[in-house]
Design goal:
single chain, mainly alpha, 6 helices, 8% strand
């Protein structure tokens, strides 16, 4: 599965071309004050996480839905290749006498 961040495209489709324009819209329409650096990061980088309040403000300011900001590819990720002979040659670690650790 892969998620792509499409804020720049969503903004451009709504004639918002600069971070300053987006910042102004966020303040006017959604009441969210973000620094210039934060808005620039949202436009140029794919975030690892995003606050729901920020997502709601972006959707309000751009009059869009979260589906306009994210593209979700649900294609399964391929499994890694089977381990080769080098991995099999390593000794396996076996727990002593077959007992598990006591509860904490």
């Amino acid at each position: 599965m892969r998620i792509d961040w499409k804020l720049r495209m969503a903004a451009a489709q709504r004639e918002v071309w600069t971070g300053a324009q987006l910042r102004r819209l966020l303040a006017e329409k959604a009441g969210l004050e973000l620094s210039s650096a934060s808005v620039s990061a949202l436009l140029t980088k794919e975030p690892n996480q995003i606050k729901l309040s920020t997502l709601i403000a972006l959707c309000t300011a751009l009059e869009c839905t979260p589906n306009d900001l994210f593209e979700v590819d649900t294609t399964p990720v391929q499994r890694p290749a089977e381990p080769g002979p080098a991995a099999e040659a390593r000794p396996k670690i076996v727990a002593g006498r077959g007992r598990s650790m006591p509860p904490i």
